[in-house]
Amino acid sequence: MLCEIVDRHGGQATSLLQILIDVQMRFRHVPPRIMTALAGMLHLPRTQVEAVVEFYRFLSVTSVGRFDVRFSDSVTDHLLGSRDLAARLCQRLGVKLGETRVDDAVSIHLTSCTGLSDQGPAALVNGHVLTRLDGDRIVQMADFIDQGMDLDTWPKNWFKVEDQVQLAGLLLEGELPLGASLERALTLHPADIFSEIDRSGLRGRGGAGFKTAAKWRFCYEGEEGAVPGDPTIARYVVCNADEGEPGTFKDRVLLSRNAQDVFEGMTVCAKAIGAQHGFIYLRGEYRYLLDSLLRGLKVRRLRGLLGRNILGVEGFDFDIEIHLGAGAYICGEESALIESLEGKPGHPRNRPPYPVTHGYLGQPTVVNNVETFAAAARIMAYGADWFLSVGTPESSGTKILSVSGDCERPGIYEVPFGSPVSDLLRRCGADDPMGVQVGGPSGTFIGPDEFERILGFEDLPTGGSMMVFSQARDVVAIARSFTHFFAHESCGFCTPCRVGTSLLGQLIDKIAEGHGTPHDLIEMTQLAAIVKNTSHCGLGQTAAHPLMQTLERFPERYQERLKTLFFEPGFDLDGALEVSRQMTGREDAHAHLTQSG
Amino acid sequence: MTDLMTHKIRIATTSLAGCFGCHMSFLDIDERFFTLCEHVVFDRSPFTDIKHLGEHVDVGLIEGGLCNAENVSTLREFRDHVKILVAVGACAINGGIPAMRNHIPLKECLEESYLVAVGIDSPQIPNDPELPLLLDRVRPIHEVVKVDYFLPGCPPSAEVFWTFLTDLMAGREPQIPEAQIHFD
Ligand SMILES: Cc1cc2nc3c(=O)[nH]c(=O)nc-3n(C[C@H](O)[C@H](O)[C@H](O)COP(=O)(O)O)c2cc1C
Ligand code: SF4
Ligand code: SF4
C-alpha cells in the first residue's frame, strides 16, 4: 500500500510531503514504521521525514479520530460563536479539545482560518468543508459521529460552499474563452509579452505588490551574465494558492469559478519565460477543490492547452501539477512555499537570492498569487489598455476583496483600485463600524476617521482580506486573537519571532485579563519593536502590527484595562500554591500569597 | 539612596531558586572586590549574613527564579526596599535549570520524590509549616515584580558584574558590551 502511494507521487524525495499527506489520510497518522520505510525508499535521513511530519499541522504522529473535526478559529468565526460550538461538540462527544477520544472515534481541534469567513462558523471534517454551523447542526453532528455515519450520508447542504460574488469587475465578469489569451501570447515574442504586462501596470495581488512583468522578465533573463531565455535552463511557474491570511477567501472563489483563467495565466507565463513545469500550491484547507481542479487541467490537456506541443506549437511543452499544503500559514511566504514544494518543512529561505533566480530546486522560478495569474490571462487576451481603464496610476485594474465580519452582505467584492473604504462599507451594508482590518492581521487596522483612505498600493495595500468590526466589538480582544494567530503560526526558525510572538501573546493576555500595569504596555511596545526589526521573514516582521496599530488608534481601550499599581503578576499567584496546599494539607499563613505586593 | 554617612552605594544580593554560581562568578572579580568595597556597602546578602533589608538600598541583585512561596516573599522584600532591581543570570531571567521541572506536573514531582521512588521508607510529603510551599511552576522573577535590569549568562561573567556596577557607580546608564554577553 505504501509502495502504491509512493509510486503515485513519482517516488521522488520532493514528493515527501504529498506522500505523507496520503499516508495521514489512510492511517489517520504517520506511523513510525512508515517514516522509517519512507526514509529508505526516498533515500532520505529518517530525521528529515520526522521533521516534515512534525512541521505540518495536518500530519500527526499520534492517531486522529475516525472523524477528525477542525473548527476554523479566525476572529470572524469567533464573532459567530465558533469557540462555543467547538466546546459544545467536545462536551456532547466526551472528548477534550485537541485530543482523540479513547475509542479513536473522534478528535476535535481548532485550526487557523479555513477561508470561509463569509459563511462561518466553518470547520473541516476529514478534509471536507462544513459551513454555517449552528447549535442544531452541532447536536446532529454529535449523533452522526457517535453512530459512525459515513460523511456521504450527512446532509448535503452542510457541505455547501457558496461563491457569494457580490460585485464583479474586470476579472470576475463574463467568461474568458478557453485558450484566447494563450493564442495571443503565441503570436508574441517573450519581450512583447513582458512589455504588454508591464504596460498594464499589473502588480502582485498576494500583498507585496511587486511588478509582475519585472518578475517574469528577471526569471527569463536569469542572473547577470546568463543568456536570456537560455533553453537549457529549467524554469518553473508556481501559483501561490496558500491563501492563509485570516479573512481572505478570494483565491478560493477564483479557483472554484475561474480556474481556467488561472491555468491560462500560468501557461502564458510559461510561454514567456520558457518554463515546462508548473505547480499550484493549494492549501490543505482547500483540498475539497482538488478534484474539480484536476478535471479542469484534464480539459486543457484534451484541448491541447497543456502538455506537449501546446496548440500545435512545436517545442512548447508545459504542464501543471497540484501540490497540497498541510496546515501551515508560513508556506504562503514564497521561499517557504518552495521549500514545501520540495517536500521539506516550510522554513523561509535567506533572500537574496530570490526565487526568480534560485527558486524550486535552485532554478529560476516565478511565484505569483492566484489572482495575479487570473489578471495576467485577461490582460493578454484583452490588452493592457483594457486593464488600465480602471484603477489609479500606481495601482491599475481592480482588486478582489474578501469581506467578512459585521456587515449585512459578506462575500466577494471586486472593486476598482482607488476606491475609498467607505464605498465598500456602504456596499456591504456595514453602518457605523468601529474599525476595519485591511489586508488581514499582517495588514492595517483602520478606525472610523480613516474610512476615506483608498485601497491601492499608494495608500492601503491589501492582499484582499477585509474584516469589518462593529462598535460592539472589543478591539483589544481582536488584536489579542491576531497576536495568538502569529504565535501559533510562527515557523520557529528564528528566535525573535518564535519567542517574541509568544511573549507578546502572554503580555496581551495579561492586559486583557486585567492584570496589566502601565509598565506592561511599555514592555509590549519595546518587545514589538524587537520582533519587528529582527525577525527573519514577513511573518515576524508584521506579527506585532495588530497590537501596535490598535494601541495607536485606541489607546483608551488599553488604558482602561490597566491597574494603577506598579506591577502585578499575570497569573494567579496564590493559585500556584494550590497543588502544594492540597498535597501537604496546609492552610497556615505561609501557605498563601497575595496577588500584588 | 546612597548611604548618607559614607556616600557609599548600598547593595543587597540573594539567591532564590539558583545554584549560587552567579554569586561565585561575582566574586571572580577577585582583587577588584577591594576597590568595589571602597564605593559600596553590602546590605542583606550571603556575604554579610544580614537577614532582612534595610530601609534604603540602592541595588538589589537577584540570582535564581521563583520555585516556592518564600522566594516570592524574599523577592517582594527586595522590590519594596531597593531602587534598582536586577535579574542576574539565566535562572532569574528565564527560570533556568530549576524550570526544567515545569514539564512535569508538580503532583508527580512530589509523589516521585517522597512517596514512590525506590528506597523511600515512611513515605510522606513534608508538611512542616517551616518549609516553603512549592509553586506549581518555576517562574522567572519578572513575572512577579518589575525588574529594572537583566544580566544574562549562566552565570554572567565577573566582567559583566564589574561593568554593570562600575557604570552605576559612575552614574552612567549601564551598558554591557556585546562581547561580554555573546556566548556562541
Ligand atoms: C507570512 C507570509 C504569508 C504569505 N502568504 C501568502 C499567501 O497565502 N498567498 C500569496 O499569494 N502570497 C502570500 N505571501 C506573499 C508571497 O511571499 C509572495 O510575495 C507572493 O506570492 C508573490 O505573488 P504576487 O507577486 O503575485 O503577489 C505571504 C508572505 C508572507 C511573508
Ligand atoms: S520570522 Fe517567524 S515565521 Fe519567519 S522565519 Fe522567523 S520564526 Fe519563521
Ligand atoms: S544562572 Fe546559572 S550560575 Fe546562575 S544560578 Fe542559574 S544555574 Fe546557577
Task: Give an overview of the whole structure.
- The complex is a heterodimer of chains A (597) and B (184).
- Helix content of chain A is 41%, strand content 12%.
- Chain A has helices at residues 2-8, 16-27, 32-42, 46-55, 75-79, 82-93, 135-146, 180-186, 190-200, 212-221, 250-257, 259-273, 290-302, 334-341, 370-382, 384-388, 421-428, 475-489, 495-512, 518-534, 538-542, 545-553, 555-559, 578-584, and strands at 67-72, 106-111, 123-125, 128-130, 165-167, 236-241, 277-282, 319-324, 365-369, 398-405, 411-416, 433-438, 444-446, 465-470.
- Chain B is α/β, with parallel strands linked by helices and 184 residues long.
- Chain B has a single domain, classed as NADH:ubiquinone oxidoreductase-like, 20kDa subunit (Rossmann fold, 3-Layer(aba) Sandwich).
- Chain A binds chain B through residues 519, 566-567, 569-571, 573, 576-581, 583-586, 588, 590-593, 597, and chain B through 69-70, 72-73, 76, 79-80, 105-107, 110, 125-127, 129, 132-137, 139, 143-146.
What molecules are bound to this protein? flavin mononucleotide, iron/sulfur cluster
Beta-strand content of chain B? 15-25%
- Name of the CATH first level of the largest domain in chain A: Alpha Beta
Query: With helices defined by DSSP (H or I, 4 residues minimum), what is the helix count of chain A?
Result: 24
Strand ordering within the main sheet of chain B: 2-1-3-5-7
What global shape of chain B is seen? elongated
